[in-house]
Amino acid sequence: MGRRRGFDEAVVLNVVRDQFWTTGFAGTSTYDLMEATGLGKGSIYKAFGNKHDLYVRVFSDYCRDLVAQAREQLQGGPKAVLPSPMARLEHYLVSLAVSLAGESPPRGCFLTKVTADRAGEDEEVAQTARRAFDDLAGVLAGAIRDQDAGEVADHVDSSPLGYLLLSVIRGIDSIAKADVDATTLEQAARSAVALIPRAEPPREEV
Q1: Please, which residues have CB within 8 angstroms of residue 123's CB and are 6 or more apart in sequence?
Q2: Residue 81, C-beta contacts closer than 8 angstroms, at least 6 positions apart
C-alpha cells in the first residue's frame, strides 16, 4: 500500500485557489504556494504538478462548483427555491448582486478574474472558462425554457437570453469592484429579468 498523504487535499486546494484569487497567476510564485499551504515544493509537485497544473485544477474545480450552485438555485421540482421559474431567476441574479456588492474588500468572482487575467494567452484556461460560460448560460436558459409554468412568451428563444443574463451577471461582478451600491446592482438584476417577454394572460370569457 502507498503512503497516505499527510494533508487534506481539499483544504490545500482551497488555500491555493485563494492565493491565486488574491495575487493572480503571474503574481504567485511556487514559494508563495509553499508558504500558504505549508507544503514543500516536492510535496506540491508530486501531489498536484507544477504551478500551472495547480492553477488549472483549482480553476476547473471552481467552475464546476459554480455551475452546480446555479443549477441547484434554478432547478424546478420539489426542491425548487421558489415555485416560479422567473422568480427563481430573479432571486438568483439579485442574490449574486447583493453578495458581490457586499464584499469587503471586493474580489469578485474567480471565473471573471481568471478569464480576464489568463484566457487571452492560455488556451487551457480559455477552454475551461468557455465551457463554464456555456454551462451557466444553459442553466439560465433552462429556467427561461420552463414552459410548464406558462410565464414566458412562446416565441422566445431562450439560448441568447441565457447569455444575456450571464452577461449582466458578469457586468455586475465587474462594476461591483468600483463600489457601486448594492441597490443599483439589485435594480439592474431585476431589470434584466424583466426584459424577458412574458406570456399574455388568458382572456376572460365574456
Answers
A1: none
A2: 73, 74, 88, 91
SS3 203: coil
Q: Which three-class secondary structure state does DSSP give residue 104? A: coil
Q: How far apart are CA 106 and CA 104, in angstroms?
A: 5
**Taking Cα atoms as reference points, which of 6, 131, 112, 114 lies closest to residue 52?**
114
- The answer on pLDDT for 168 being more than 80 is yes
Nearest to 119 by CA among 46, 201, 12, 24: 24
Is 100 in contact with 172 (CB distance < 8 Å)?
yes
- For residue 3, what pLDDT band results from cuts at 50, 70 and 90? very low
Cα–Cα distance, 142 to 71 (Å, whole number): 9
Q: For residues 102 and 36, give the distance between their C-alpha atoms in angstroms, rounded to a whole number.
A: 26
Distances (CA, A) of 168 to 69, 71, 137, 186, 190: 18, 18, 11, 11, 10
User: How many Å apart are CA 161 and CA 165, to the nearest integer?
Assistant: 6
CB 51 within 8 A of CB 42: no
The H-or-E segment that residue 149 falls in is none
| Per-residue pLDDT at 104 | 86
Other CB atoms within a 10 A radius of the CB of residue 61 amount to: 15
Q: Is the pLDDT of residue 2 over 50?
A: no
Q: What is the distance between the alpha carbons of residues 112 and 29, in angstroms, rounded to a whole number?
A: 21
